[in-house]
Structure formats: C-alpha cells, structure tokens
Amino acid sequence: MHLGANIFLDNNNTVAFKVGSDDHQIIMSEKGFKTGRHYTEFIFRTEPAERSIIIGVCLMRNDYYFSVADPKGFWGFIPSECKKIGTNEKGVTEKAEYGAPCKINDRVGILLEFNKGLEISFYINNINMGIAFKNLPIQTYYPCSILGFDSSRIEIIPSAVFPFSA
Prior knowledge:
- By secondary structure, the protein is mainly β.
- A hairpin with a 4-residue loop joins β2 and β3 (15-18).
- It has no helices and 14 strands.
- 0% of the residues lie in helices and 48% in strands.
- The protein is globular and about 40 Å long.
- It has a domain at 33-63 and 70-137: SPRY domain (Jelly Rolls), CATH 2.60.120.920.
C-alpha cells in the first residue's frame, strides 16, 4: 500500500487507520489498473461522518495529502454527504448528488471498467449506485481511500469478488 505519513496498517495490512492529525490523507492500493474490469471493496470500521472517510480512485502521486476543495487526480464518493467528487469529461471539478448514506460496517465497492475510457461505479452493500464517472482518459488508476479524522479506520479488500454476474 502507498499511504500518507499519519496512516498506519493493522490486521495483516488490511485495515488502515489514522493517528495524530485531522488533515485528509490517502491510502492507495499497491496495484493500479489501466485495462480490464476490476472491483475493490472497503468496509467502514469507523463511522464515515463529516468527510472522515472518502472512497475512490486516484492517479499515482508522491504527496498523499488531499484537498476536498481541489481533488485533482481523484474521482470518488463522499458517503457522509452522498456526493461524488472529481473532474468530469470536460476537465471541470464536479461535486454532485450521488449514492446513499453509509454507516459503520457498511461495504462500499468500486468497479473500474476500461473500454474506450474508464467508467467508475460504486456499490453500497452490493447495491449498484450507478455510473459515477465515465469517459475518463486511459491512465493507471489506483483504488484508494482518504481518511480525515484522527482514529478513522477502513478495511481494504483489494481482491473482493464482484457481487453480481457480468
């Protein structure tokens, strides 16, 4: 995993938790994708309140800090606000209604489907929330989570089984 300075791993490197600060920091999957179809799941081990946990994909970076006001290189879902956030097809930052409320122990899956461009969909407890982003340029994208509060915890299941038949 690639992770911010205040994020640590527990439980055989499957649970990420934040210690010592309330800035937003990223934990990225070790493996990025630029072809095919990939599904990763996250389980909230603390309440995803007030932007404490955000789920999505990002481009490789060497700065693991994240700004909700300027989410460059990130496309995702803010469960505490039921909003998607990212750059749309025209390169404009967009924050729009999306998804459903989440709570502790909920599972949020992210499906990456590469065709002529990348299409991203989110699943909450195996229920498809629909396409959040489409026609993103073909690049290498990394499933990730952003932890905001001190003591925020999330479990990462990089090899989760897609909940429905294709």
